[in-house]
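Structure request: 5'-nucleotidase, Octactis speculum.
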Amino acid sequence: DAAVMRQACFDAFILGNHEFDDGDETLATFLSWLTDTNYHCANNLAVLAANVVPGESSPLVGMLGNHTIITVGSEKVGVIGLDVRQKTMVSSSPSHGTYLLDEATTARRCIAAL
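Returned structure:
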């Protein structure tokens, strides 16, 4: 539930296959609630899904990042968002036009960018 998650003040939220169970529109609504800046900490939350490519009419366009860097103590930690391509495309319901890229290829690209 987004209301409970907002209170936890997570640094990052990485999409998994179940986030797509009800399509892009439902996921976009959930992410809007999760990142609502009227609530404590929400403006710091990075929504990550580096290998998710929303369809051109998907409400997810512009909502997803690839990676972020967080500071843990005195260390900087790179966080990359990767969803499981095969499982998501087969058992969940991303909207028409939304697809997922290969996880390993995407991870290498993000590591190079970090």
